[in-house]
Amino acid sequence: MGGIRFANAHPAGIVNSVFVFVSFLVTLPGLATSSRKWIKLAGYMAVVCAMFTMILGLYVWILTLKARGDFAPLFAAQSDQIKSLMQTEVSFYPHPILPRYRLTDMN
Question: What is the pLDDT of residues 58-93, one digit of tens each?
Fold first, then answer.
C-alpha cells in the first residue's frame, strides 16, 4: 500500500508548499484576534515564503535554459523531416493542460 507518489517531485518544491500552508495557518490567529505578534510573524513568513518561491522559480528557469542549450545541438543535427516531426508530433505530456508531475503506480 504505497499511496500516491509524484514522479519528478523535487524536495524543495514540497518544502515550499508546506511552508506556504504553514504561513497561511499562522495568519489565522492574527486575523481572528488582531494580535500584533501573530500579524508580524505572518508578515515575516510571507516575505521568507515569497523569496524562497522566487528562488525556486529562478532555479527552474535556469534548468530550462540549460535543457534548451543541451537540446539545440541535437535538434540542429537532425534532418528537416525529423525536425518537422519533433516540432509537431513529439509531446512530453499526454495533454497540454496536465501538470509536469505525473502520478506513478500505487504500489
Answer: 988 888 888 777 877 888 888 888 888 777 765 555
Question: Is residue 60 assigned to a domain?
Answer: yes
Q: What angle do CA 66, 102, 67 make, to 5 degrees?
A: 5
Q: pTM of this prediction?
A: 0.60
For residues 6 and 101, the answer to whether their CB atoms sit within 8 Å is yes
Considering the domain boundaries, does residue 46 fall inside one? yes
Alpha helices (H) in the chain, listed in sequence order: 11-33, 36-76, 80-88
Split into its structural domains, the chain has a count of 1
Domain that holds residue 28: 11-87
